[in-house]
Design goal:
Blueprint lengths: L1 E10 L2 E11 L4 E5 L6 H9 L3 E9 L2 E2 L13 E4 L11 H7 L8 H7 L1 H5 L10 H13 L5 E5 L7 H16 L3 E5 L3 H7 L2 E6 L2 E6 L1 H5 L2 H8 L1
Parallel strand pairs: 3-8, 3-9, 6-7, 7-8
Antiparallel strand pairs: 1-2, 1-4, 4-5, 9-10
This protein binds adenosine-5'-triphosphate and magnesium ion.
The site of adenosine-5'-triphosphate (ATP) has 12 residues, from strand 2 and helix 1.
């Protein structure tokens, strides 16, 4: 469904992704792990077209992704929840959900079914939400564009432990709904519990890959790359 081959990409003259390859099948949940600054967010940004791609190929559902204009990538089925969440502060919850919506199976009723809290807060402005609510809203907004894949960048970042558990429950429900997921996470153990397959990044490339069982049973990998 998504195949990235030998990507070299970065910002300005700086190269961050250094020979990075990854592939995902339809319906698969893939965890992308690694320490701070190894290039996880940059990989998602590259898929969305927000870095300078120097070399390599990206294929998305049989198409050359580089040929899909950046503004058309959401419509092409790529959903992205950035690390900064980027909830619109001066729009209400409901406006945040509908402003970038595209026709599909996810409408307001479905989102409120998944996140009852957002229904309660639907008249609140984006800047009147807790961190957990903002994360739900960012995921809900991505779903409203009817994505075939969701690129989730550290959804649990900065959240209280009880909310982190809630976020992982949401991730499980997205998985059950058949959504293909590429999940960037610092909580490696939790990510490996929901993932079908995992990649560990180091210095802009993939250092290790395998099933969650393979990675969990490799203490050396866990110690060296995940801490
Ligand atoms: N907009 C940018 N301009 C220049 N350099 C950047 C930019 N964004 C990230 N970088 C650099 O690219 C490298 C990889 O950053 P990236 O954000 O992709 O890492 P990450 O694995 O997502 O880290 P974290 O776990 O802290 O989110 C870092 O050295 C960072 O300083
Ligand atoms: Mg990041």
């Amino acid at each position: 469904m998504l195949t990235l081959e030998s990507l070299f990409a970065g910002y300005g003259d700086a190269t961050v992704l250094d020979d990075c390859s990854l592939s995902m099948r339809d319906g698969e949940s893939v965890a992308l792990l690694g320490r701070n600054g190894v290039g996880k967010s940059s990989l998602l940004l590259t898929i969305m077209g927000h870095t300078r791609l120097r070399a390599g190929s990206m294929r998305w559902r049989g198409q050359d992704l580089a040929q899909i204009p950046v503004h058309a990538r959401a419509r092409a089925g790529l959903g992205w929840v950035p690390q900064e969440r980027e909830v619109f502060p001066s729009l209400t919850v409901e406006e945040n959900l509908t402003v970038t919506a595209l026709p599909g199976k996810w409408n307001l009723a479905a989102i409120y079914g998944l996140f009852p809290r957002l229904r309660e807060r639907r008249k609140n402005f984006g800047n009147q939400l807790s961190g957990g609510e903002q994360q739900m809203l960012a995921i809900g907004r991505a779903l409203m564009a009817d994505p075939k894949i969701i690129l989730l960048d550290e959804p649990s970042m900065g959240l209280a432990p009880v909310i982190v558990l809630e976020v992982f429950n949401i991730i499980r429900r997205l998985k059950e709904a058949g959504i293909t997921l590429l999940l960037v996470e610092q909580f490696a153990k939790s990510a490996l519990e929901v993932a079908d397959y995992a990649y560990v990044m180091e210095h802009g490339g993939i250092a290790v890959e395998g099933t969650p069982d393979e990675l969990n049973n490799n203490e050396k990998v866990l110690a060296a790359y995940l801490g």
